[in-house]
Amino acid sequence: MILVLAPSPLDHSTVASARVLLGGSFDPIHHGHLRAALEAAEALMVARVDLLPAGQPALRSPLAASNHARLAMLQLAVADEARLGVDARELQRPGQTFTIDTLQSLRQEAGPKAPLIFLLGADAFSRLEKWQRWQL
Questions:
Q1: Which residues pair with 119 in a beta bridge?
Q2: Mind listing the pLDDT tens digit for each residue in 119-133?
Q3: Are 128 and 134 in contact (CB under 8 A)?
Q4: CATH label, 2-125, candidates 3.40.50.1110, 3.40.50.620, 3.40.640.10, 3.60.20.10
Q5: Is residue 90 within 8 Å of residue 52, measured between CB atoms?
Q6: Pairing between β-strand 19-24 and β-strand 2-5 as defined by DSSP bridges
Q7: Strand extents, DSSP E, 6-60
Q8: Backbone angles phi, psi at 49, to 5 degrees
């Protein structure tokens, strides 16, 4: 599922300049996550997709791996793929993390006009209406 956060309709040149993130718990990271991120990069024709691991998600049972371990696994998984990166901001935030806070942080960094594209799995999308301030 793709969530596009942009002030106006996107054209090819706008999408190519977008910040693209794939959110997930990545507990653990697996080939399906990497394949989805790479296929998104190809389909959207962007140079990079950043994997955005969830910190302590409110709607999930406790994660098996620690934040430190998940970050290490992610960094190792993307090390040889220039089109993939890791944004660890949620892992650095104490307490429960909410995607809306992360998206607002990204918006503040990128500015009001820069397009942001947030990708999420079908499992997360099926619970979207339970997310904190999901309608913003």
A1: 2, 22
A2: 987 676 556 566 555
A3: yes
A4: 3.40.50.620
A5: yes
A6: unpaired
A7: 19-24, 49-53
A8: -125, 130
Is the four-CA dihedral 98, 40, 49, 14 of positive or negative sign?
negative
Task: Give the pLDDT confidence of 73-124 residue by residue, as tens digits.
Answer: 999 999 999 999 999 999 998 888 888 888 889 999 999 888 899 898 767 6
Among all chains, which residue has been given the structure tokens 């990069």?
A: 41
66: its two tokens: 């620690």
Residue recorded with tokens 């371990």? 69
The residue with tokens 């955005």 is 52
- Nearest residue to 98 via CA among 52, 64, 65: 52
Q: How confident is the model at residue 1 (pLDDT cuts 50, 70, 90)?
A: very low
